[in-house]
Amino acid sequence: MKNEIYVGVDVSKGALDVVIRPTGEYYAVANDEEGIDHIRRHLLEIRPKLVVMEATGGYERGLSIALAVAGLAVAVVNPRRVRNFAKALDTHAKTDRVDAGVIAHFAENLKPEARGVPEEEAREMDALTTRRQQLVDMRTAEKNRLGVALRSQKAGIQEHIRYLDQQIGGIEEELEAVIAKNPVWQVRDDLLRSVPAVGPRTSGMLIARVPELGQLTSKKIAALIGVAPHPRDSGIYKGQRRIWGGRADVRTAMYMATISAVRCNPVIKAHYQQLRARGKLPKVALVACMRKLLIILNAMVKANLHWQVFPEPQQT
Known about the structure:
This protein is an alpha/beta fold. It folds into three domains: about 5-110, Nucleotidyltransferase, domain 5; about 120-180; about 195-310, no CATH class. About 60% of the residues lie in helices and about 10% in strands. It is built from twelve helices and seven strands. It has helices at about 35-45, 60-70, 80-90, 95-110, 120-145, 150-180, 185-190, 200-210, 220-225, 250-265, 265-275, 280-305, and strands at about 5-10, 15-20, 25-30, 50-55, 75, 235, 235-240. Strand 1 and strand 2 form a beta hairpin.
């Protein structure tokens, strides 16, 4: 899209070199608290679509955390990806300004996922979340089998369910530890869990699976997760609107959170009661509340505001 701004930052122990595309603006500051604050304030003014920097053994953490906490989209990428991109551009010059320019060009063209953390940490989070979902699916299957199993089989199934419970508990502890040791994720987790009915499982799923949260409009985030109703019309036939597609694991987590929210979250509870009073079926009302809860969370992350001070969001 036109007028979108992309920023590349070349990080070293002592300096931060910044190039902004498409304007080509360049400046350099010290890699210290004052320099990081200067970049943060400047980027908050111009609101870039994406800020990209390379993982440099920890020298990037101060800046990436400051920008991510400020609500900016930040990607910390493997340096090898940028080097390969530079080779494809036939760029052989090697200065801090050139490197920052290549990173900005990389951001503009490849648009890596914005997570604010190194890709290795993001992959660890994804792997743990995926494994937890696999174990939950296995446990659900075993519980379903338990109801129809022969008496001689039930003890073995129950033992397997207990084993899966232990494995899931261990994975959840690992997920909480991974979030706790990362300042970006810790801030995001604190913000999400300030919402009544959003607990550690839902928060962890959103952090791991929806790095786009806070970066998209309410309509786009609803479509991304698969909670936007789609028409099923053909000619004069008008079918019932249904949700489909999107990220099923996130949708499942949001659905469970919504069931709790209609009891303990005043905004979602009131919305559910209004929909039921208008004759909506319980499941239809729950899906609408799930979409509303997701939109609220998206707006909160975008504004970097906790629930206690968050106004009612406007649909966009």
